[in-house]
Amino acid sequence: MYTYTGKILNVDLTDGRSKISTFNEDFAKAYIGGTGFGIKTLIDNQKPGIDPFDPENPLIYAVGAVTSTIVPCAASKFGVFSKSPESNLLGEAYSTGQWGAELRMAGYDILVIKGKASKPSYLWIDDESVQIMDASHLWGTTIWETEETIRNDLGDQLVRVSAIGPAGEKLVRFACLLNDHFRAAGRTGLGAVAGSKNLKAVALRGTHDINVAAPEKLQEFCKDLYERCQGPATSKYRVLGTPANVLSLNAQGAMPTRNYQSATFEDAEAVSGEYLNAHFVTKIQGCSVCPCRCEHVAEVREGQFKGAIARVEYEPTMAFGPYCGVNDLAAVIKSIESCNLYGIDAISTGIVIGFGMECFERGLISKDDTGGLELEFGNKEAMVEMVRKIAFRENVGDLLAEGVRRASEKIGQGSQHFAMHIKSVEMTGYDVRGLKTCALGYAVSRRGADHQRHGSYSWDLGGKVDRFKADESRGKLVMGDEDFYCIFDSMILCKFTRGIWKGYDEIAKLYSLVTGIPLSGVELQTAGERMSNLARLYNVREGLTRKGDSLPPRVMKDPIPSGVAKGSYVSEEELNILLNGYYKARGWTKEGVPTKLKVNALGLEAYSNIVEKEGT
Amino acid sequence: MNVQVQYLGPVRILVNKQEEEVELSSGTTIYELLQKLAVIYGQAFDREIFEDDRQSIREGLIITINGIAIGQLNDLQTPLKSEDVVTLLPCFSGGG
C-alpha cells in the first residue's frame, strides 16, 4: 500500500506497554481512514456497555486516507473516537492543524490508548520510540502552557501536541482535546476520556517519508484542486470566515437565540462576521497545505477583555453571542479563548450557559448557586466568568459541567423542557424548528445533536425543499448527505471544499492516486453507507433505540415566536414522518435497527449478533 | 414600487453598503432586479451573482425574498411586490 503505513500503535497506560498491530488492503478499502477506521476500531476494541470513564474504554486517534500528502485542504486532518461521557454512545470529533500529518509521519495510521496511568502522564511518540512521560508538572496547566512546556522539556519546537486542559482533568463531560493552539477535537467529551486515563497529552514527532502511489498524476490532480479551492466556492471562508453565517441565519429566522427562546437576534450586526473582520481580525491563517486559509484569528485590543485572542468560527460566536443574549464580540472572543485554554467544547459551553441563564431568570437557580453572579441573558461578565467556573467545576459550574441533560434532571422544576440536547449532546447553531430536513439530520445524527454529520441545512436554507414541511422524502436526502460526509471524514477532506468536488468518482480517483488501491465511485459510496451502518450498529449495541432519535422538547412544542419562521416547530407527528422516511431509505426496521439483509450486503456479518439480539 | 435590498457577506463588501431601497416597475422579477443591480455595480458584482451562463445564481449564493429562499418560490422568475425585502447572502455551512 502507498501512503498508509498499515500500522496501529496500541498503548496500555496501565502497564506502560505498547505494541504494533497491522491492517491490510482489504481493511483500508472497506473503511478508508478517519471515520471508518475510528468506528471500526472502537466497536472491535471496546467491551459493550462499559462506562466511558472505565480505563478499558479506548481513546482512538485515526488519520485520513490522504493525510500527510500534498492534497490541499486535507493534509493534516484526524479523528478522535471513544465512548462518549456525554451520550454513552459514539463519541467522535475531528481536528486539523499540523498534528494529524505528524502521526502518519511517525509511522502510524491509528493510535489506540487504553488503561489508566498511575499518575498524570503524557504520551511521547518519536517515530518508533514510544514513552509514557511524567506530566505531574503539567497537571492543572492550560493547554497552551502544556504545549509550550512539552516542547521546551523535549528540546524540540516542532513537536506537535494534542492536549487536555483543567476541564479534561476534572472530567467535565464536554471537555475537548486541542492541538496547534486553535484546533479542537471539540465535541462529545473526548477530553474527559483522556482525563479519566490521567493522560494530559499526546506529543508527536515523525520523520518518515510518505510515498504516494502516483506522484506525478497526483501533482496534476492537486494543481487543479488547488485552483478550485481558491475559486468562488470557497470565497466566503477566505473573505469573512464562517462567522458570515450569523447575519445569514438571522435573516432566515434560524438563529438560536436566548436558549432557543427566539430564532432572531436583534443585535446580530454587532456579533456578525462583517463586524468581526472590521474590528477584531488580525490575521487569517491556514492548516498545513491549505490554499484557502479560513482561520480568522481575532484579538481584543482594548476594554475589559483586552488581550484575548482566539480563532473565531460561527458556532462559538452563536453560542456565546445570540444564544446567551450577548452582543459584544470582545466577550465572545474572551469566552472562546477561555475554552481553548481550559479545554472545553465552545459550542456545548455556550449552550450550557444559555440553559443556566434561563434557569436563573426563572428562579430555578440563585446567586447562591452561581457564586454571586447575576447569570442573566446579556450579562457578558457573568458569561465569561461562568466559562471558568464550568471548567473548574465551581459553584453551579460543577452541575453545568455535567451537560444540560444531566443538569436539568438534577434541577428539575420543568427545566428539562428547555434543556437543548439530543442524545445528551448540546444543540448547535441552527434553529431546526424552521428547517425540517435539517431537523431530521440532527435527530438521527450518530454522535448526538450535530450539523456536521450531514449538512442537511443546505436543502432547507437553499430553498431546494419546503423547509416548513416534513415528508418522508427527506430521509433519502439526509442519508445521502450522511454517507457522503462519511467519505469526507474518512479521506479526510475539509468540508469547506465540498462545493468543488464533482462527486464520488472524482474522490475515488484521488484515493487511488494516493494509495495505489483501485476503487470505483460506487465502491466508495458503499463504503460511506457501510460506515453509517457500522456507527448505527455500535450505537444500538450501546443501547440506542428509536426513542433516542428525537428532538428537544422546546423544538417540538414551542413555535418560533417571531420573524420569517414565526409559528414553525417540529411536531411529534412530523418527526415520526421524517424518521419513517429515513429508516426506510436506510433499509432499517421501524425501530431504527439495520436489518440482517442490510448488514450482510455491506459486509458487516461479523456484527450480526447485534441485529439478531434486536430480533431483525 | 420600492423594494429593500439587503447585502450580506462578501456581496456587502463588494457593493460597500448594507442595504438600499430600489425603485422598480410593477411585476419586476427577481432576475430583472439582479440584472439592474449588475448594471449599477459592474462586472465584479455580476460574477459574484451569476454563473457564467447568466441563467442561474452562482453556487454559494442564496437569495431570499422576505426570508424565503427563491428556490422555494418561483426561482429567478419570482415576481416582486412593493415593500418586499430581498436579501443576497452567502451559502451556509459549518463553522465549528
Description of the molecule:
The complex is a heterodimer of chains A (616) and B (96). Chain A starts with 6 loop residues before the first strand and ends with a helix. With 616 residues, chain A is of the alpha+beta class. Chain A has three domains: 7-205, Aldehyde ferredoxin oxidoreductase, N-terminal domain (Aldehyde Ferredoxin Oxidoreductase,  A, domain 1, 4-Layer Sandwich), CATH 3.60.9; 220-419, Aldehyde Ferredoxin Oxidoreductase Protein, subunit A, domain 2, CATH 1.10.569; 432-613, Aldehyde Ferredoxin Oxidoreductase Protein, subunit A, domain 3, CATH 1.10.599.10. With 96 residues, chain B is α+β, with helices and mostly antiparallel strands. Chain B has a single domain, classed as Beta-grasp domain (Ubiquitin-like (UB roll), Roll). Chain B has helices spanning 10-15, 30-41, 43-49; strands spanning 2-7, 19-23, 61-65, 68-69, 85-90. Chain B has a five-stranded mixed sheet. In chain B, strand 3 and strand 4 (68-69) form a beta hairpin. In chain B, helix 2 runs antiparallel to helix 3 (43-49). Chain B starts with a strand and ends in a 6-residue tail after the last strand. Chain A binds chain B through residues 186, 232-233, 235-236, 239-245, 247-249, 251-253, 273-274, 313-317, 346-347, 428-429, 451-452, 455, 457-458, 461-467, 495-496, 498-499, 563-565, and chain B through 6, 8-10, 12-13, 47-48, 58-60, 62, 64, 66-73, 87, 89-96.
Question: What are the key terms here?
Answer:
heterodimer; A: Aldehyde Ferredoxin Oxidoreductase,  A, domain 1; Aldehyde Ferredoxin Oxidoreductase Protein, subunit A, domain 2; Aldehyde Ferredoxin Oxidoreductase Protein, subunit A, domain 3; 3 domains; 6-stranded mixed β-sheet; 26 helices; 13% strand; B: alpha+beta; Ubiquitin-like (UB roll); globular
